[in-house]
């Protein structure tokens, strides 16, 4: 049985004051969660959040990392730097990175490799656009995105987490139906099984307008092992409620 993971993706939100109040609120209400919990915060706030989360059950995550190890890459943050701040997980290939920063499948695969090499779990995001879904290409797109990561990191693929995030559901209030989500998760699970005998322990998260009202139903699906939560992760009560649904 896979333990569930609820990961918050703060995106480019927060401030020193807002982060402190959000994390203190979460820690006050969390108790002993039945699932793993993490928050992926903007890199400039890693030190602050590391201090606030010290000794707690919430793991620290980041939202991106460089595909390079070190050197002349102005503005970038390496896996080793993230590691120094206690980062346990890092998003790679979020659709906003693919869309606005033109990240390719090959770059996403390299980033996943950099994270793995530093002992950080990459949360590999895959997902189709509305046009791709309407053209019947959902399975083809997510399989292509995941295949690149498997191809480059096959030897340790069971160490990754996958997040299925249909692009049309992110931040739009439109959630994939439980059937739509489970169907894609099953496709991804089959692909992982073909690549690794340990595929059944890989967590596949759903992301895209997950909220306190729809989380329980999504999380009850056999291949949905948690959630990658954007907007609702910025509100203490909503995030705690999603965590409680993953029990
Ligand atoms: P959302 O974002 O929950 O606000 O739709 C999810 C994500 O992009 O990770």
Explain this structure to me?
This protein has 247 residues and is an alpha/beta fold. It is built from ten helices and eight strands. It has helices spanning 16-30, 46-53, 79-84, 95-100, 105-117, 130-134, 138-153, 178-195, 215-219, 236-245; strands spanning 5-9, 36-41, 58-62, 89-92, 121-126, 161-164, 204-207, 226-229. It has an eight-stranded parallel barrel, surrounded by five helices. Strand 6, helix 8 and strand 7 (204-207) form a beta-alpha-beta unit. The site of 2-phosphoglycolic acid (PGA) has 13 residues, from strand 8. Residues 9, 165, 170-171, 207-210, 228-232 line the site of 2-phosphoglycolic acid.
């Amino acid at each position: 049985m896979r333990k569930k993971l609820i990961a918050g993706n703060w995106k480019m939100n927060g401030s020193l004051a807002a982060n402190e109040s959000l994390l203190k609120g979460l820690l006050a209400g969390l108790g002993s969660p039945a699932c793993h919990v993490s928050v992926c915060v903007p890199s400039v706030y890693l030190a602050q959040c590391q201090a606030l989360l010290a000794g707690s059950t919430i793991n620290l995550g980041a939202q991106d990392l460089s595909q390079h190890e070190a050197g002349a890459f102005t503005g970038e943050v390496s896996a080793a730097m993230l590691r120094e701040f206690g980062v346990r997980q890092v998003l790679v290939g979020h659709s906003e990175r693919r869309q606005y920063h033109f990240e390719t499948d090959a770059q996403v695969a390299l980033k996943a490799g950099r994270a793995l090499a530093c002992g950080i779990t990459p949360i590999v995001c895959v997902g189709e656009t509305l046009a791709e879904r309407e053209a019947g290409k959902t399975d083809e797109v997510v399989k292509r995105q995941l295949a690149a990561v498997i191809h480059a990191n096959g030897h340790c693929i069971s160490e990754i987490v996958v997040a299925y995030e249909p692009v049309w559901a992110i931040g739009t209030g439109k959630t994939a139906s439980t059937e739509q989500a489970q169907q894609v998760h099953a496709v991804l699970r089959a692909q992982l099984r073909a690549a690794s005998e340990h595929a059944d322990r890989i967590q596949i998260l759903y992301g895209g307008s997950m909220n306190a009202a729809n989380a329980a139903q999504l999380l009850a699906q056999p291949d949905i092992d948690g959630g990658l939560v954007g907007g609702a992760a910025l509100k203490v009560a909503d995030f705690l409620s999603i965590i409680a649904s993953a029990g």
